[in-house]
Amino acid sequence: MQIEVLKSKIHRVKVTGADLNYIGSITIDVELMEASNIIEGEKVSIVNINNGERFDTYAIPGPRKSGEITLNGPAARRVHKDDIIIVITYALMDFEEAKTFKPWIIFPNEKDNSLT
């Protein structure tokens, strides 16, 4: 049996932009993507702390150490600049493997989205 479990989580980052006219996705500082083991094109779930919105999109890398968290395309309507969000990914795995799996969870600084 396979189950879906938490794989990665960027806990509480500040939205730095919303670009309605972009094709779609969320742009994430590549340093945050690497630290949380999220790859380009991976499906991500977004939880907006400010308004309770929950939705899915996919990740694209932004400039390293920029702190960028930009929601693009239709997702831009579900956030405002300076909202605090959580970015989550899940993985399918064998039930027994899931019992010992440890997800990548990071807690960036909410003021500038840095890791330090």
Automatic annotation (TrEMBL):
E.C. code: 4.1.1.11
InterPro entries associated with the record: Asp_de-COase-like_dom_sf, Asp_decarbox
Catalysis: reaction(s): L-aspartate + H(+) = beta-alanine + CO2
Entries under SUPFAM superfamilies matching the protein: ADC-like
NCBIfam families for the chain: panD (TIGR00223)
Family stated for the protein in its record: Belongs to the PanD family.
HAMAP family: PanD
Protein name, UniProt field: Aspartate 1-decarboxylase
Organism for this UniProt entry: Paenimyroides ceti
